[in-house]
TrEMBL record, chain A:
PANTHER family: ABC TRANSPORTER PERMEASE PROTEIN MG189-RELATED-RELATED, OSMOPROTECTIVE COMPOUNDS UPTAKE PERMEASE PROTEIN GGTD. The chain crosses the membrane at residues 12-35, 172-201, 207-229, 241-260, 285-307, 346-365. This is Alpha-glucoside ABC transporter permease. It is found in: Cell membrane. GO terms for biological process: transmembrane transport. Residues 173-365 form the ABC transmembrane type-1 domain. Belongs to the binding-protein-dependent transport system permease family. It holds the Pfam family BPD_transp_1. It is a multi-pass membrane protein. GO terms for cellular component: plasma membrane. Keywords: Cell membrane, Membrane, Transmembrane, Transmembrane helix, Transport.
From TrEMBL, chain B:
Keywords: Cell membrane, Membrane, Transmembrane, Transmembrane helix, Transport. Residues 196-399 form the ABC transmembrane type-1 domain. It is found in: Cell membrane. This is Alpha-glucoside ABC transporter permease. The chain crosses the membrane at residues 6-29, 50-70, 111-132, 144-163, 192-216, 228-253, 273-295, 329-348, 378-401. It comes from Gemmobacter aquaticus. The lineage of its organism: Bacteria, Pseudomonadati, Pseudomonadota, Alphaproteobacteria, Rhodobacterales. One of its GO terms (biological process) is transmembrane transport.
Length: 379, 408
């Protein structure tokens, strides 16, 4: 139908281009972090991530020469390469920071304390002197070089398996999993029974309860923090996983009941009445008929709750302790932003570890997520 | 005990406990309390069926009561007591809060968030829904725009902090925004893009608001039969849109005459007032996907024949969109708007992660967190939580009202 109005080619092109621009705008921020997480710290601070795919010329940070001294033709020589294994091409170089571009590749210079330094295009250097250089402080070289695109998995290796204190992303990953799986599963059953009662059982006060659930959907959980912390302390749970699971269960229930009730109320009345006529009890109807039929709604809610508990910061900050065995990913990330805000190689890899699971769930289960959103767009 | 083991145990106990509770309580009801046999069989069945719903509801009602209803009243009570929660101070906490500059700063930024984020998210969502609805790669485009919904607020903050990153003058800028900013040199291109374009856009927006206010006033004049509340609503709507329009005019002048510091890298998150907008961008980026999904479904639900009729009457694509489609999905737009409004009222993670409320970016939820857990002042903290509750209440009432209307 719309194609009548959209038959003008110019308009069609305008639509394609605007849509592409919009998508690019929405994709670029994430892409930037993803690309950065595969670059070394020097690369990240040396050039923007959008230049990561092209060969580029940049001034490298100072490199101190090192190598074994050998005697050759009566002279003392140290040979080596500035770049161990990497392929960069040097254009200009220098020996102090005031004039980092003093010499071209292949040229030689005499250092202030005697030796002669030659630096080739590929980074090979030769330091030669008439006397031994064993006692000499090795010179630093400033080089401007073109470096081809290069990516590394080192950042992920570092944050996951060799964490420094307080950066235990691997441990935080497990902690987050520990928080979110029980907090996703437990509310489902409780909510399903309640939703069945609200959808298919007749009793006084039903409408009032449904209204109450709708109201509770929007109650900010900020109000619940102190009273519940007091309550947990008074019954001896204190700060810990049990408290988080209970809190997430309580906070997730209104949405669960609302989604499931709406879905169940839409199931065909005939099936349920036939079952009743055949002598099925409410319990049997629920477990044998309603629960299997409600699978799409159950899946929708499970995805919501999982994303919500995985991504949550506030509940974890308040109800969990701050030890290494209780820090979740969002909390760890928050600490990293505070303490190592400039170390983008750590920050970006950590962030991507925390984003990876929700993104996978999102792309695999998008159908259910959209369905759930359309059914209960309130939370 | 290892937490992972504890988690598995909890799942088993939780799920097993639930199933056990429901199974045995039903069994108890049917076999022991009101058995469906003997002389009172019929009466017993009826009684059992009166009690059964409450068996089904009990666990949920306990959880909801304890974890959501009780805290509202407990927080209300705490807000009337002093720091330690022992001495009654009446409205003292609220009075003290009103004297704090930080509180008013939080209220001001929250007000800004409440206007800008739902408006722009809904607008971008509507645009994305309309653009992607009729192209062949629309579903891929939708997926990608929707994707930020899955990213945590903290993760999104890291992503955007990289965009806002600043390096000293002379070094390569690794933040995208500063990189773009450094391309502007004050030449005619800069003037066109940074002065003329924003000024024209803002002026256009102001004109739109003025037009809306005029429409509402005209409706108010013409429709004398309208109910009292309708008239009040129209008057308020006209006043608000006129006010927003006025602000837009002032900003348009500001944009046209601003003295921009070309060539110097900017610390975006420390620029007073405007840094709020850089934080809002994060939430808009996340919420647009949500708005797009809901509005796209609504757009597809618009009856074909109304569009056909409009085409036959010679309407162009823009007229079809604004005069046929948008009015028919107004209800959905309101739902999207209110849903995002609630998210905005609770926004905490983004501000916590990016500025922690410094440089004039404090918001209510972060103010409350600071009071509760940094200053350990439960009285004032609870009072600010009650302010958030108070702001949510109109939406709560509206949602309940609509739900009850649907139930009938």
């Amino acid at each position: 139908m719309d194609n009548i109005a959209g038959s003008k080619p110019a308009l069609v092109w305008a639509v394609h281009i605007s849509a592409a621009l919009l998508v690019a705008l929405w994709l670029f921020p994430t892409l930037g972090l993803l690309v950065s997480s595969f670059r070394t710290g020097d690369q990240i601070s040396g050039s923007g991530w959008w230049q990561a795919l092209s060969t580029q010329e940049a001034q490298l940070p100072a490199i101190r020469l090192k190598g074994e001294e050998v005697q050759k033709d009566g002279a003392f020589v140290i040979e080596g390469n500035l770049f161990d294994g990497r392929t960069s091409t040097i254009s200009r170089w220098g020996i102090n920071s005031r004039d980092p571009n003093a010499f071209a590749a292949g040229e030689s210079t005499t250092l202030p304390d005697g030796p002669t330094l030659t630096l080739q295009e590929d980074g090979a250097f030769a330091l030669s002197s008439t006397s031994t250089m064993a006692e000499m402080r090795m010179p630093r070289v400033f080089a401007t070089a073109t470096t081809p695109p290069e990516f590394t998995l080192q950042n992920y290796n570092n944050v996951l398996f060799q964490p420094k204190a307080g950066q235990g992303v691997g441990q935080a990953f497990l902690n987050t999993l520990t928080v979110s799986i029980p907090a996703t599963i437990i509310p489902i059953l409780i909510a399903a029974f309640a939703a069945y009662a609200l959808a298919w059982m007749e009793f006084p006060g039903r409408a009032l309860l449904v209204a109450a659930v709708v109201g509770l959907l929007v109650v900010p959980l900020q109000l619940a923090l102190i009273p519940l912390l007091q309550f947990h302390n008074s019954i001896g749970i204190g700060k810990g996983y049990l408290g988080v699971w209970l809190a997430h269960t309580g906070f997730g229930l209104p949405l669960a009941i609302y989604l499931l009730r709406n879905y169940m109320a839409g199931l065909p009345r005939d099936i349920i009445e036939n079952a009743k006529v055949d002598g099925a009890t409410d319990f049997q109807i629920f477990t044998r008929i309603i629960l299997p039929l409600s699978f799409p709604a159950l899946a929708s809610f499970a995805i919501f709750q999982f994303l919500w508990t995985w991504n949550d910061l506030l509940v974890a900050l308040v109800f969990l302790g701050s030890g290494d065995d209780q820090m979740v990913l969002t909390g760890t990330l928050l600490n990293l932003m505070g303490s190592r805000g400039g170390d983008w190689e750590i920050l970006s890899a950590s962030a991507f570890v925390s984003i990876a699971v929700p993104l996978a769930v999102f792309f695999l289960m998008q159908k259910y997520l959209v369905r759930g959103l359309l059914a209960g767009s309130v939370k | 005990m290892h937490p992972a083991f504890q988690a598995i145990l909890t799942i088993v106990i939780g799920v097993g406990g639930c199933i056990g509770y429901f199974y045995f309580s039903n069994l108890f009801l049917d076999k022991v309390l009101f058995p469906a046999r003997g002389e009172n069989a019929g009466r017993n069945i009826n009684r059992a069926n009166m009690i059964r719903p409450w068996l089904f509801l009990l666990p949920a009602m306990i959880a909801l009561g304890l974890y959501l209803t009780y805290p509202v009243f407990a927080t209300l009570k705490l807000s009337l007591f002093d720091k330690s929660g022992e001495n009654f101070v009446g409205l003292g906490n609220y009075a003290q809060m009103m004297t704090e500059a930080k509180f008013w700063e939080a209220m001001r930024s929250n007000a800004l968030w409440l206007v800008v984020v739902p408006a722009l998210s809904t607008a971008f969502g509507l645009l994305a829904a309309q653009l992607t609805d009729r192209i062949w790669w629309g579903n891929i485009a939708k997926s990608l725009i929707f994707m930020p919904m899955a990213i945590s607020f903290v993760g999104a903050s890291v992503i955007w902090k990289l965009i806002y990153d600043t390096r000293p003058t002379g070094q390569a800028q690794i933040g995208l925004l500063n990189h773009i900013w450094m391309q502007f040199d004050g030449g005619w291109g800069s003037v066109l893009l940074l002065r003329v374009l924003p000024a024209v856009l803002l002026a256009g927006f102001a004109a739109l608001m003025g037009w809306l206010a005029w429409l509402l006033i005209r409706a108010l004049m013409a429709d004398r039969a309208g109910g009292f509340w309708l008239r009040i609503g129209r008057l308020a709507g006209a006043a608000i849109s006129a006010l927003i329009g006025l602000v837009a005019v002032i900003w348009a002048f500001g944009a046209a005459t601003a003295n921009l510091p070309y060539g110097a890298p900017q610390q975006w998150l420390t620029i007073p007032f405007w840094n709020n907008f850089f934080l809002m961008a994060v939430l808009i980026w996340i919420q647009t996907g949500f708005a797009m999904v809901i509005l796209s479904a609504a757009l597809r639900g618009v009856p074909e024949d109304t569009i056909e009729a409009a085409i036959l009457d010679g309407a162009n694509a823009f007229q079809i969109f604004f005069k046929i489609k948008v009015p028919q999905i107004m209800g959905t737009i309101v739902v999207v708007w209110t849903t995002i409004t609630i998210v905005v009222l609770k926004v905490f993670d983004i501000v916590r992660a990016m500025t922690n409320g410094q440089w004039g970016t404090q918001v209510l939820a972060n103010y409350m967190y600071d009071k509760l857990f940094t200053a350990s002042d439960w009285g004032v903290g609870s009072a600010s939580a009650m302010v958030i509750m108070l702001l949510v209440t109109p939406i709560l009432v509206w949602n309940v009202y609509n739900a009850r209307k649907e139930m009938r």
